[in-house]
Amino acid sequence: MTYEAVVLGASAGGMQLVKNLVTSLPNDFGLPLIIVQHVGDNSDNVWPNLLNECSQVLVKEADEKEPIQRGTVYLAPPNYHLLIEPDHSFTLTIDERVNYARPAIDVLFETAAEAYREKLIGIVCTGGNFDGAKGLLRIKELGGMTIAQDPETAEASAMPKAAIQTAHPDYVLSLDGIKKLLLEIHTAKTTSHELEN
Amino acid sequence: MNESASDIEIDLLLESIFQKYGYDFRNYSKAHVRRRLDQRLRLSQLGSFNAMRDQIIHDPEYAETLLRDLSINVTEMFRDPLFYRSVRELVVPMLKTWSYIKVWHAGCSSGEEVYSMAILLKEEGLYDRCQIYATDFNQYALKQAKEGIYRSESMKKYALNYQASGAQASFSNYYHAQYDSAIMDASLKKNIVWAHHNLVTDSDFAETQLIVCRNVMIYFNRHLQNQVHKLFYNSLSNGGILCLGNKESLQFSDFADSYEELDKKQRIYKKRYAN
Hints:
By secondary structure, chain A is of the alpha/beta class. Chain A has helices spanning 14-23, 46-53, 105-116, 133-141, 158-167, 175-196; strands at 5-10, 33-37, 58-61, 72-75, 81-84, 90-93, 120-124, 145-149, 171-173. The model of chain A has no long low-confidence stretch (mean pLDDT 93). By secondary structure, chain B is of the alpha/beta class. Chain B has ten helices and ten strands. Chain B has helices at residues 5-21, 30-44, 49-58, 60-71, 81-95, 112-123, 139-147, 152-164, 186-189, 222-235, and strands at residues 101-106, 130-136, 149-151, 175-178, 181-184, 192-196, 208-213, 236-244, 259-263, 268-271. In chain B, the strands form two sheets. Chain B has a seven-stranded mixed beta sheet with strand order 6-2-1-7-8-10-9. In chain B, strands 3-5-4 form a three-stranded antiparallel beta sheet.
């Protein structure tokens, strides 16, 4: 299977995890990584900029109508929901909070599932609520790969636990396991790409 | 790319709404429309978008509910306080050069941001020479906006936004609270005209000096955004001001060169003088 995108949700404890993961990606990472991380409503561009400075891949806030590119990490802007269109571009909305959150992981995951179907990888990581569980289930229903962080290794276990209960994901992995799996998929993708050429 | 069966069903549904009721959601964000339709589909216990389409064609009341689903946007007073601070600092001095000011709040929804602007204009001594046109195509939201009644609970958050916007007075001066409701002061409503207007299907509005349309066009696709930008351009006087939402940009629109940026971050633009 050739995957085309990765979506990831994190809440409490997410900053460390996102930093750890994003800084480990090689500069030619063959997929886009799209992240909803629960943050305060009025935080500005400081966090994406900081991440970008210490990463090999490009890290940026997702812009309205921006076409999604591989090798790029996109963060949902605070106080907007992040949606993915069937043509693989972003939409931002100010709709009601979902699971008390805006951006909500479920909103990203459900729209990404429709847009990428079986070519999507969804990952639910550390967090103290249950956002992302329904979205991960939707990814699974449409044939994508589903992963939850091992609750034992997560800083806050409630969110990956809820995801496991609701979606019965394909993999339950530590952060290191998630990194390893993503790199394997990246390598497989670049190798098959080279063969095609 | 091949469209999935449900994508095609949604396209047909939107086509039917347009043909039967004249409301055009065909150029809305597909991901957004699908989410709202999905929610209604689950609540209505209908099996598919095709079944929903049938119901819409034959049941105007059901159609009404769906139109409401598709068109209501949530907002708050002084949303993005720094935007209002920038309006005070950059836009107000320009507005003061006009003897009579027409303000168009396009897509005003339930009115929170219209009252915010009315408060700001009042505090800056401009309200009495302003006419504010607040428009939306959702009659239900418009009715709410006109009444100006909000939940007392929300007022606490709005008061914090108000203070962060650089205002000097007390937010409680502008409403009267009773039990769990708060009604906006009548003096704010005096110069506001609430009107039904559909950005997608209606034409130019009036010659205005300030257009505020925040977080409305994010729901539209690029084609429709350009169409609405044309409408705004034609409705603004030379040197008039256009205010968009914090994540909206003119940069990729057909009208990027028609405006100068007054505040890049707060998305405030000034229409260039036409040659």
